[in-house]
Design a protein that fits this description.
single chain; about 550 residues; alpha/beta; Cholesterol Oxidase, domain 2; 2 domains; 7-stranded antiparallel beta sheet; 13 helices
């Protein structure tokens, strides 16, 4: 069955990028836009309440339930791979941390041949959707955009110990704007939270656009393939409760399914490495070896402490009265700990004098790391997560079957390159030294992971193998570029197929030095200009 009237644009995936594109393209009342989402509406309270991020990211009804392939360098462990299956996508379940990466990251993109993607050229697109009233430099920050960016009004007191410890250890500087021109140092961080609730492209951009008659949003509608006729994308096939059908697109199909599912759908549709597709009986439409390659993520490893002191966020019998007050405070005024995403302070630093930008992040969590899957911290403590911002290891996404209902095989190849270990080890050493500073002494915390017995190089390496995971920032699997391994060109058009673009983190040539949600919003804002020929955000390629 085919839908009656074709749309101009069919957008696959109502994640962060898809919501931006649907809102921007439908601003023209003469343009018919269809946004397709496999999951349901973003109504669950786990999405809306910032402190319940741990519950959202684990909820089976809000994610695809993915895991990686066994990781050779991580004791053959399968890592969780939480990807949002809900309107807002991973932007509805992520930690709400707002970061752009380092300006040099985008200059590197441009230097690799991606015309139009230098820092000065993408900065206007960051500013377009940003509403950052706390950073008044309008040449760097947007102050009237749709997505609100703020500091947590009353961060937990343990954050000050973290900041004071950095000051005491020496050699690092404070930073009051991690999304500015020089995002290096330690300080409080901002998040996409507004009036005590999660803000996102779904809430800030898509929701206001839903009243437009030229925008159709279909939820619980899974795309099973892209229709390609004579080298041109003409629509998509979908599976929904009322059965399978096709949704035509007269202008373009815009693939916004993310770093896992965008390459998955391309390969299911015959766009990818010819040998791999033929081995599964899939007709090759375009032999693109880069589809699914270059997949990478930020490796991260924690150091965790527990304490009897109840300063941290957490639940215990001693804090029942406080918890009841916090619940009432949030219900009545959207204030208090439940209005915080917990990730309130951080540091972006260099692991050595030889790096030209920060290559390590140390994220501070003023709450105990749960040994169980309970979504709220039980007991009290804190944790520091060390993140390698520029991993060298590269993995891949591959089909497990030609059946679109079967999840793809995702192998990030974490720590496959031995050089990825050194930044993590240096960061762990610094994290332990920070916690030995006088600022933390009043809390009498005990290191429980890995524990004070871990001191030698072999012991630390064993800890890396057993504890390293990722920061859930997958990118690069449909890389933008001008070489033979590139999947899309600098205008985000899929090579060899007309009327088809990829617009999400899959197109990143390389990972940025920070959280990836804001860069995905930027990519989608720029894509809207590329598609329509407008220059609302600034100059762009033709």
């Amino acid at each position: 069955m085919t839908s009656a009237a074709p749309f101009d644009y069919v957008i696959v995936g109502a994640g962060t990028a898809g919501c931006v594109l649907a809102a921007r393209l439908s601003e023209n009342p003469g343009t018919r836009v269809c946004l397709l989402e496999a999951g349901g509406p973003a109504r669950h309270p786990f999405i809306q309440v910032p402190a319940l991020v741990g519950a959202a990211i684990m909820h089976p009804g809000l994610t695809w339930g993915l895991t990686t392939e066994p990781q050779t360098e991580l004791n053959e462990r399968r890592l969780p791979l939480p990807r949002g299956k809900v309107v807002g996508g991973s932007g509805s379940i992520n930690g709400m941390a707002y970061h752009r990466g380092h300006p040099k990251d985008y200059d590197d993109w441009a230097a690799a041949g991606n015309t139009g993607w230098s820092w000065q050229e993408v900065l206007p697109y960051f500013r377009l959707s940003e509403n950052n009233a706390e950073q008044r430099d309008s040449s760097v920050h947007g102050i009237d955009g749709a997505i609100h960016v703020t500091h947590i009004p009353h961060p937990n007191r343990l954050n000050q110990a973290f900041l004071d410890a950095f000051g005491a250890v020496g050699g690092y500087r404070p930073c009051d704007d991690f999304t500015g021109l020089d995002p290096e140092g330690y300080g409080l961080r901002q998040g996409t939270i507004h009036r005590g609730r999660r803000d996102s492209s779904a809430r800030a951009l898509l929701m206001p656009a839903l009243r437009r008659p030229n925008l159709t949003v279909l939820t619980r509608t899974a795309v099973t393939g892209i229709r390609i006729e004579s080298g041109r994308a003409t629509g998509v096939d979908v599976a929904a409760a009322d059965g399978p059908r096709s949704v035509p697109a007269s202008r373009e199909v815009l693939l916004c399914a993310g770093a896992v599912h965008s390459p998955h759908l391309l390969m299911l549709s015959g766009v990818g490495p010819a040998g791999h597709l033929e081995s599964l009986g899939i007709r090759v439409q375009a032999d693109l070896a880069g589809v699914g390659a270059n997949y990478h993520d930020h490796p991260a490893v924690p150091i965790a402490f527990e304490m009897r002191d109840t300063t941290s966020y957490g639940l215990s019998w001693r804090t029942v009265p406080r918890a009841l007050w916090n619940l009432a405070e949030y219900a009545l005024a959207r204030r208090g700990p439940l209005a915080s995403n917990v990730f309130e302070s951080t540091a972006f630093i260099r692991s050595s004098a030889h790096t030209d930008r920060p290559d390590i992040q140390i994220a501070f969590q003023p709450a105990r790391r749960n040994p169980t899957t309970f979504p709220l911290p039980l007991g009290h403590g804190f944790a520091l997560s060390v993140v390698n911002l520029y991993p060298r290891s590269r993995g891949e996404v591959r089909l497990a079957s030609s059946d679109p209902r079967v999840a793809p095989r995702v192998n990030p190849n974490i720590l496959a390159d031995p050089k990825d270990r050194a930044p993590l080890l240096r960061g762990l050493d610094l994290a332990r030294r920070l916690c030995e500073m006088p600022a933390f002494a009043p809390y009498e915390a005990t290191e429980v992971r890995p524990g004070r017995g871990t001191r030698s190089q072999p012991e630390w390496l064993a800890y890396l193998r057993g504890a390293t995971a990722t920061a859930h920032h997958p990118v690069g699997s449909c890389r933008m570029g001008i070489d033979d391994m590139a999947v899309v060109d600098p205008n985000l058009r899929v090579r060899g197929i007309d009327a088809l673009r990829v617009v999400d983190a899959a197109v990143f040539p390389g990972i940025v030095g920070g959280n990836t949600n804001a860069p995905v919003v930027m990519v989608a804002e720029k894509a809207a200009d590329l598609i329509t020929g407008h220059t609302r955000g600034g100059r762009h390629g033709s």
